[in-house]
Each structure stands twice: as C-alpha cells, then as structure tokens.
Write a structure and sequence with these properties.
The protein has 491 residues and is of the alpha+beta class. The protein has a domain of 336 residues: Outer membrane efflux proteins (OEP), CATH 1.20.1600.10. It is built from 11 helices and 6 strands. It has a 4-stranded antiparallel β-sheet. It has a two-stranded antiparallel ribbon with strand order 2-3. Helix 3 crosses helix 5, helix 5 runs antiparallel to helix 8 and helix 5 runs antiparallel to helix 10. The longest helix has 69 residues. It is elongated. The two termini are 39 Å apart.
Amino acid sequence: MRRLFMTALAVLMLAGCKMGPNYARPETATGESWKLSPATSESIANLPWWELLKDPALQQLIRTALKENQDVRVAVAAVQEFHAQVIISRFDLAPSLEYGATGLYFRTQTNAVPIPTLGNAPVLIPGLAGGSQRLSAESGLGMLKWELDLWGKIRRSIEAAQAQLLSRGENQRLVVLELVSAVAQAYFDLRQLDLQVEISKRTLASWHETVSISNIKLQHGVISKLDLDRFEAERANTAAQLADLERQVVQKENQLNLFLGRKPTDIVRGAALTEQVMPPSVPAGLPSDLLARRPDILQAEQELVAATANIGVAQAQRFPSFSLTGALGVSSTQLSSVIIGPTFTQAAIGTLSGPLLNATALGFQVKVAEARAEQAAVRYKKTIMTAFREVEDALIAVQKTREQREAQEIQVTSLRSAFTLAEMRYQGGRASYLDLLTAQRDLYNAELALARTRGAQLVSVVQLYKALGGGWSPESLDQTAPAAVVGKGDE
C-alpha cells in the first residue's frame, strides 16, 4: 500500500497540469488624462476620510456608522464565510483520514415451533430451550481517502474560492466607502436644510414686521388693502416653505439614523454649512489608478478571475479521476479475544472513474462556464466605463458648483443691498409696496438657492472622493482613527 501511495504521489507531481485558461486581465482603455482635469500623481483619493471631512460631529457620526451599520456587518460576515470556504477547498488536495468501530451481537435459538397462518408461510415461535450467541468487534484504526488532482480540478476550485474571498473583501471596502460617502452627503444635506430653515425664519420674522407696519399704515389710510393682502400672502408663502423645510430636516435625521444603525433620534450638529472646511484643490490623480483603487472594479475583476477558474473545473470534470483508499484495522470474532489475539486487517484500493453517458452534458457545462466568464468580462469592462463616467461627472460638478456659488454670493450681496434700500424707500413713502415685495422675495429665493449650491458643492467633493475610490483601508483606519471600530476578515 505504501508503494502504491508513493507511486500515485509521483504521478501527481509529474502531472501538475491544470485544465482551462489562466486568467489574464482584459485590455481596457484607461486614457492618460481626464477630460476636465489634468492628470497628476496627487489625488484627493489618497486622503483618509477623517482628513477630508474635518467636522468633528461628522467624524463621530461616521465612526458610529462604521461600528453599528447593518450592511457593514453583513459584508464582514461574508468575508469570514468565504475565508472559511477557501480553507475547506484547500483540504481537498490532502488525503482525508477517518476512524470507525463496529460491534456485532448475534444470537440464535432452537426448539422453535411453527404454527399455521392465513398465508402460506408459517410463523416460528421460539421455544424455551436451546440457542447460542456470539459477540464480535471490529475497529478501524485508519481509513485513508485521497483523490489525485491530475487535471487541476481541485486547484482551479481553490483559485475560484480565493478570488471569491478577494471579491468579498473588496465588497467590504465598497460598502464602507459608500457608507462614509452616504453619511457625509446626508450630513451636508442636513446642514443645508438647517441653513435654509434659518433663512426662512429670518425672512418670516421680516415679513411679520412688514405686515405689522402695513396694518398701521392701512389704519391711517397711507396704503390700500391690496398692499396688506400681498404682504400677508408672501408671509404665508414663507411660512409654508418653512414648514416643508422642517419636515425635510426630520426626515433627513431619520435617514442618518438608519445609516448609524439606530432608531430615529436627534442628530448632533457640528460646524455650520458655511464653516465646513474642504481642501482648496481636489486633484483627481491618474486615470489608471482607478483600476487599482476603486473597490467595485477590483471586485468585478475578482469575479472574472473566479469565473475563469471555473472553466478549468468544468473541463477537468470531463476527464477520468483517480482516487486511492487505504484501510488499517483490527477485528475479532469473539469479544474476549480482542486483547489476546486480534486479527489485523489492511487494504488498499485504487479507483478510476470517468463520465460516459453524461459526457455530453459535461461538455455543455463547459460552455456554461465559458459563457459566465464572458459575462463577467463584460461586467468588468462596464464597471470601468461607469467609473470613468462618475469621475468626470464629479469633476464637472466640483468645478461648476464652485463657479455657481461664487456668482450667487455676488447676487445675494446685491439683492440684500437692494432690499435694504427698497425697505427704506417704502417706509419713507418714496417706493411702492411692489418694490419692497419684489426685493424681499428675490432676496429670500436667492439665499435659499445659495444654501443649496453650498451644500451641492460639498456633496460634489464627497462624490468625487467616492468616484476615485476613496482612501479608506482597514489598516490605515486602525492606525489613524482608533475610535472607529470595523470588523475585518483575513485577506
């Protein structure tokens, strides 16, 4: 048996072949520069999120989300699952060793009396005398099983399992990056709504004052009822917008609490929207860096690696398999003789098996694996194209929201001056109510629009950070931000 195992091992080492194609990354056009930004070695994606998002309240929200969010926990558990699957698949290369024992109690009786039945067969009723009994035992000290991986089926299965593990690891990074981005965007949206609520309350207070003054002027016959009605209508419109904004604030807080993995409660605020610190420049880096940084691209590539390896698994199943089985044990026909003089048994079996009637079906199984690999390759290329589009969209958003904010700041400054002048002229009787109404309405709408643009500018930076693949990794997170606790799977 030993010689047989050594021969089989030599055959396995000499064979060493693996069916199916080896993985090769598909050709993709990455380009040398971005459409709207020069390519540089520096990139905003190299910053960890806690250096990009400097608001202490926002950082604490992100840390809580990374610790409590349910999607992150699911992603961590998936990594642990596939890590175990890789270990299981590696054990298929090694022999398996089992043990077992069997005991048999056998008893016979004589002097049995047959009695007639309704059928043809009699029933035996044991008598009171005669009979014999015997007790035997058999134990297996070792049952060795080993399938020789002549065609690389097991090794290809291990490749597929390892690729799936890496894919789940990238999926964990993707979930975390999306979570950080989602929390930051929701927080900036909340601070934008807070600013709009503040503007609405200030404008509503101004309308209250205007209506009060107009009531006095109406009583003295200075203005008509038409003027007062228009002012009251504008006040009511502002109150309605304030109520809608307050509704959005509560709903945005509920959304943030969902990211944090907790029931709805108040969200602690930090810096105001106008006080948020962002880097003065947001370089995008090199386009080729996306292939090595974005987790969704890396995940799609590992899915392609696994699909390519599964082609070899499917092809190897069409060829014969050879396995060895060895056994070593001891047995005795009488239980009392096990210690005195048992009988030792040993056996070695070589098994050769291969497909016959199902060979055609296995051939189509190869076609299935090849089609799945082709689908994975298309998804990989599409993921890359989507990534480039998202980066370009984010770049133009960062650029144009900044220009839009600068223009709207000038507009708000001019409209605030115009409103102040119109109010003074109206109170002095040198301007009509329409001048004051128009100036205050325009100022209110411009301030709301400027608040939205400021929020959109902050969100566009976060979206660019996400589109570039971010700068988060489990190792740097543990070293630089110890308060953030994230479960990690082995890589």
